[in-house]
Amino acid sequence: MSDDIAFDKSFDLQTGIAAEVAPMVRAVCAGNAGPFTFKGTVSYIVGRGKVAVIDPGPDDARHVKALLEATRGETVTHILLTHTHRDHSPAAAALKAATGAATFGEGPHRASRPLHIGEINPLDAAGDMDFRPDRALGDGEVVAGAGWTLEAIATPGHCANHMAYALKGTSTLFSGDHVMGWSTSIVAPPDGAMSDYMASLHKIAERPETVYFPGHGNVIRDAPRFVQSYIRHRLGREQSILHRLGKGATDIPTLVRAIYIGIDPRLIGAAGLSVLAHLEDLVARGMVATEGVPSIAGHYRLA
Fold first, then answer.
1. For the chain: N or C, fewer Cβ within 10 A?
2. Residues of the domain holding 138
3. Helices 252-259 & 268-284, crossing angle to 10 degrees?
4. 191 with 271, same domain?
5. 181 assigned to some structural domain
6. CATH code assigned at 289
7. pLDDT tens digits, residue range 124-158?
8. Are residues 260 and 177 in the same domain?
9. Do 117 and 229 fall into the same domain?
10. What are phi and psi of 214, to 5 degrees?
11. Residue 6 domain-assigned (yes or no)
12. Element (H or E) spanning 14, and its range?
């Protein structure tokens, strides 16, 4: 059901080589390609002379070296995180040690809701539990440097501490993993929450920025229209779940087989968690019922 989104599977960046992608914005791709990271995490350098780095990336000395090389002769004054998954934030420590720059982000990694009794967060390994920003940012707070100003926009859903950043005075927004052009974003409880994610999609859809630079993949142009396709896709996924439950009670593996036709086998686990995210939301809204709290092992029926 992803054919309702005009994905862009092309990619213009060479790993480790900085490229100017917009006035005042350079991009450097890390070499961590994979089924969840596409061609790799993209770090952004904002400004000239005294610059900010958004999402320094994974714990990879080669990528840190590439960022330092890209900013040779300049001063990195700020390091900003969209969120604390391990493909985005661990390099902040090495980059800070090399440059003395302060770190900024919403806060430490945490689940989007309290864990249920006996529940283990399956994505704990994906979270950078060590990161603590030097300055925690709230929604709408501004970070300013030499010739640039970034507005922090709280966009929870993919994970609890996700933030996007708008480059003031331009049409540019750094969307992290909230909106990407190559694929939909993973929303996997308890790390993420579908109700939060949908609210965040509607929030940025109402903003004026038209060009998004995501954490993975190429630039997204005509971004508000693209966000609307994301919203329609999630609503369609919800309707597919309700349609299948209309045929009778069932479990998550059955829903995945019915909805995700031809899925990459490596993504089946993530698809199950995405379905769970929708089911948690549907149960909270009184549209679906289950015994006890929603869980990956639960059985579901229309309420």
1. C
2. 19-233
3. 110
4. no
5. yes
6. 1.10.10
7. 668 999 999 999 999 999 999 999 999 999 999 99
8. no
9. yes
10. -90, 170
11. no
12. none
Q: How far apart are the C-alpha atoms of 90 and 170, rounded to whole Å?
A: 29
- Ramachandran sector of residue 145 (left: φ over 0; alpha: ψ -120 to 50; beta: rest): beta
Residue 13 lies in a domain: no
In the chain, helix, strand, coil percent, each to 5? 30, 25, 50
Mean pLDDT of 246-252: 97
Global pTM exceeds 0.85:
yes
Residue 184 has pLDDT above 80, yes or no: yes
Residue in the structure block whose two tokens are 């320094």 = 56
Contact between 186 and 36 (Cβ < 8 Å):
yes
For the chain, percent of residues with pLDDT exceeding 70: 97
CA-to-CA distance for 259 and 75, rounded, in angstroms? 49
Task: Give the distance, in angstroms, between the CA of residue 23 and the centroid of all CA atoms in the same chain.
Answer: 24
**In Å, how far are 2, 15, 67, 94 from 98, measured between CA atoms?**
42, 21, 11, 6
Cβ contacts of 166 within 8 Å, gap of 6 or more: 150, 151, 153, 172, 173, 174, 207, 209
Joined together, the tokens standing for residue 184 give 């939909």
- Same domain flag for 255 and 168: no
pLDDT at 267: 86
Residues 226 and 266 both lie in one domain: no
5 domain residue, yes or no: no
Q: Which two tokens stand for residue 203?
A: 């929030």
Q: Is the dihedral of CA 72, 180, 164, 128 positive or negative?
A: negative
User: What's the whole-number average pLDDT of the chain?
Assistant: 95
Ramachandran angles phi, psi of 278, nearest 5°: -65, -40
Q: Are residues 221 and 244 in the same domain?
A: no
Whether residues 174 and 210 fall in one domain:
yes
Q: Which of 186, 212, 233 is the last residue of a domain?
A: 233
Q: What angle do CA 187, 191, 194 make, to 5 degrees?
A: 40
